[in-house]
Specification:
- The complex is a heterodimer of chains A (about 180) and B (about 290).
- Chain A has about 180 residues and is mainly α.
- Chain A is built from 9 helices and no strands.
- Chain A has one domain.
- In chain A, about 70% of the residues lie in helices and about 0% in strands.
- Chain B has a domain of about 90 residues: Rod shape-determining protein MreC, domain 2 (Thrombin, subunit H), CATH 2.40.10.
- Chain B is α+β, with helices and mostly antiparallel strands and about 290 residues long.
- Classes of the chains: A mainly alpha (about 180), B alpha+beta (about 290).
- The interface between A and B is large, with 54 and 56 residues.
Chain lengths: ~180, ~290
Amino acid sequence: MRAFLLAAAFVILAPVVQAAVVNGLPWGGPDLVLIGVVALAPMTRHGALLGFAAGLAADIAPPADHTIGRHALVLCLAGWFLARIPSETPAGFGLAARAGRPRRAGLRSAPPPVRAAPVALVAVLLDALLAVLLGDEPRDPVLASLPGSLAWTVLGAVAVSAVISLLPWRRPSSRRRLWGRHA
Amino acid sequence: MRTFGRRVPVLLVLLSIVLIATDRWVSLTSLRAFGSAVFGSLESAASSAARWPADTGRIESLERENARLRAALLARNDEQHKRDKGDKSDKSPEDGYRVVPAHTIGFGRDQTVTIDVGSAAGVARDMTVFDSDGLIGRVVQAGPATATVQLVTSPSASVGARLAGSREAGMVEGGVAKGGPDRGLLRLSLLNPEASVQVGDDVVTLGSPNLRPYVPGVPIGSVVSVEAASGGLTRTALVRPFARFTALDLVTVVLGPETTPKSSAPKSPEPKSPEPKDDKTKGDKR
């Protein structure tokens, strides 16, 4: 329940804070929604749902003017990917864990901040690619803003994941069970 | 439940793709209106809370500023009207405009901002937005309580413009140089390749039929550098916009021409009906 409330609050508030505060900063800023999905998805099995909801919220929250579904698609994939890699797979965790095992054995055993970085990187790149392909933005401005947004978002994702993984959420024995059950 | 880990994500990915495809062909305006109602209201509330300490005692000065802005716009249009009497592109400048003030409450990553008025206040797509410094942009979406404004600095923005002095017409486009010292500048392309343009010349909007998307005579910026004439079809120059897009606060949205000279219309809540006819007929309608 706690995880669900956290996720719901995140989905509703992140686009608002992004639009009202972060995007108004003169020196640029991170993509809070993406960072939040990357940081929260490993805590739940329903990362794809979390990513989809957060992405859709970011798609429709004003002043977004791009194709609806773009962030939803990117973040759904990111959340799915991260949620499918449980930090230590308990026996019989589910189909998801087994399906994810063979290809990503190296990433799977890495701590959350290390896993967050490549996912955030790929998500930003995929979003930029989709923005150009869907005609939301011309190519040159996207390319020009890419280094800045990559730096902000990848570093932010690593930092937030690190903080979340260091926080004493639960005793280690009960943690996996609780987070696996609730979304 | 065991298959949740695979089936639901696949469905969600498919749903995202369906959303993208749908929004490409038929714009999902209802979904955007929902977003405006939910997230726009939250942005509005957050912005009001942040403004609250500064707002006490500020309303009066804002009202005064607003009145001054309207007067300035009126005077400018009057002046312009006198100068080009034969020019039929200008609409009823002597009437002034119905305007509504708004606050900037959210910023987008792609050169858009949210303002805290929407279709409930009569705002609709393709209306001019400006502030006390100059042109801001045009409304690209109007939700129930908020609207999205595309800034003139957006790469996809293009505004019909003219030089304030020589009346040479052209086009101003955003997204010139993304980084470096030229960041935030606009490119002016004059239709006449032999037009004389100097650093410091002011650029104003040309105006569109029916006042949409841009009303005539709103200051855009001043020329900061003239690009060497290369025998092309147009003459180009870089323009620094007057508006400070990083510090937007109070802006004005032009709803349309003033329907009756006496009624100051901003408080009338009914949505503006588009007037395809020339403004000369409006006296008869009343």
